[in-house]
Amino acid sequence: MLKSNVAGGNGGSRPGARKPGTPSSASPAAPATGGANAIALLQSSSLPALVQQELERMILAGEVPAGSKLNEAAIAERLGVSRGPVREAFRALEESGLVRLEKNRGVFVRQIPVEEADEIYELRAVLDEFVGRRLAQSASAEQIQELSARVDRMERAAATGDVAAYFEANVAFHDRLVELAGNGKLLGMYRRLVNELHLFRHATLAQGGVLPVSTREHREIVERIAARQPAAAGRALHEHVMASRERMHHAALPAAAVVGGLTGAVAPSVPAAVAAAVSASVAKQRSRPTSRKSR
Fold this sequence. Notes:
Elements: H1 36-41, H2 47-60, E1 69-70, H3 72-79, H4 83-95, E2 99-102, E3 106-109, H5 114-138, H6 141-160, H7 163-180, H8 184-205, H9 210-226, H10 230-259, H11 270-287
Antiparallel strand pairs: 1-3, 2-3
Helix pairs in contact: 2-4, 3-4, 5-8, 5-9, 5-10, 6-7, 6-9, 7-8, 8-10, 8-11, 9-10, 10-11
């Protein structure tokens, strides 16, 4: 996890950039999942891409909550790179829908209201239905075997209750489905949409009992594709996405009761962040003036 001043204000970072790969004695140890060590070891690769991957990991893992400001200097110091690659990574993350850049204010992890998440789920359901229909007609035996192996990985993660591993495998499975559909425009649109939903999807999967249900839905999708049933495959994907939307609401609402107890000094967890979005939406609805007709 980054130091506390990575997400927030300028927080006392030392001026000037250090040479790439130079360790900082003030920085905490890098997480076992890769992080700063991976970047130090892969200096020959594209630094902006590596910085982008690490920031994506942090955002999707909930280490940097939605709405947080990303501190360019602190990130550069923590990852052992100059500010240039960090700025390039910010631009790439904005294009992918994970952050927003505000002029004269900085870069913030994107936060979307639940109403917008609902709209994205509905659009994603339509796109996924098209993908299911196409793959049931065009997927090769090798591709179907690959998809089945991906579901196997989800089943293993579900059996051990490893939400992080399941989330990663789940995202990769759906991305691969769209990739196999062979439509570049669709793939770009889909990736941006799902990036905007990552906060909600992670919270949804963290609910008790969800992983086995989700795994069964994925297995059914592959079975319908393998059976060469376009309508059934499309329907299975559509129903899976809409069921995920319902699970999102179940994840958000029970946590809403604790949102009021959060302080500015405590970063909300992923479910709490979702609940906060729900609470904000409800408050917005209640604040609207009553129409003349209803008076």
